[in-house]
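SEQUENCE AND FOLD
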Amino acid sequence: MLRSRRTYRQSQSVVIDRIEMRRDRVLFRARSAVTSPSHVLTGPSAVMKLVLVALLLTAGSATTLAQDAATPEPAGIDEVQPAPASIGADIPATYFGPPPSEVDKNLVGPVELLRAGEIDMEAGTITLPLYQGRMADGTPVWYVLTDTTDQANAEALGLNHSAKLAYADVEGAVRTGHLEQDLTLTFEEGTVDFAPEMVLTPGGGDAPFPPSVAEPGSIGDDAYSPLVKIENAGGHIYNAPIIAFGNTAEELTFCDGDPDHSLVHDRVVSICPEEQTVTFQMVVGFSFARPVFYMSFEASDPMVATLEMATFAPAMSNIQVGFDDGAFSAVERLFVTANGPTGADNPQRQGLNSTLLGEGTGPLNVFGGVPTIALDYSPLWDLNLGIWTQEAIDAGYRSRMIDEFQYLGMAEQGHITGVPGAPFGSTGIIINCPIVARLL
């Protein structure tokens, strides 16, 4: 829950201006001497690898790949803070009432969407209930719940409702779970190995991407997907990302932070089985011109999973992309800009180039529909990469995109295209990014 209720102006300030993403939580360890044919970007696949890198970085990597002493201080999350309503008025901000979203969550103002957890606005984290289940052979499985097709239970538990997840249940993209008498879940298949060390070696020269080496810090087996269908309890599907596997509660006790990421998901800030809680770092983006918080758990591609600090989940690649809001589509679209405006003090700053230069806290991606704004929400995001054309840049059209249809309008007019040689659209990669809160 949000820690206190404030006026509209104060809510904006607490939610946005005071957020500090803990960049030091994630350390990308460079291995400049390591070169593996499976990771080096050469030959015909180089263009697609560039797309994968861009897509992954768009999901909000918490660490800048390369900086030097001359790099300006990051602008911070306050760069997306809406101006106080009192600007230009003859009354102070204190005269303005609370946000309309306190009366109707569909109206403007901050809204906590994933109500199952407690959001710490200053730290940019969310603490969720930690669940323990087991594999059929008794191996412990630790997971969280974020979304479900069961609308009534979503309301009861404070989860996100996503009807679209029902259409992911094809070709092995959804695991099965059995509800036991003690109300724990037993999973039939799908394991995750958290032991690998995440390795990301930036590319050489003036551009840090594409990387020469990219190895995810956690890897699912061929059957692993975060989606679970509880076969003996209504057949509903839950988004239940595994965040630790095969360990006892004692081995996972990092209640005060500094967890061992060879045991837990790389985005975990702290985990406390005794209190049945786990805390994650959040990421900021936009949905229909409103700043949003989200989490990143899995990706269907290993390179993207590395850059996302997420688990590589091969089974997610079985989900159809490109259908957006068509009938039976399980996905929503995520728009990322490769070459947006740069400059730490530039109010139009956005994109991968800016992020890699150490400007701000991330690329400020544009999401499709989220709850209370649209009816088509899914935590499964179909990554679309956009590149401003040189003609658009020369004409002064390049600017920060904060709305899906604003983005699509620029693509329709030819100002934003796909990677050279490819039309604008899906890259074929899915990431699991449950929405947490709407900040406006």
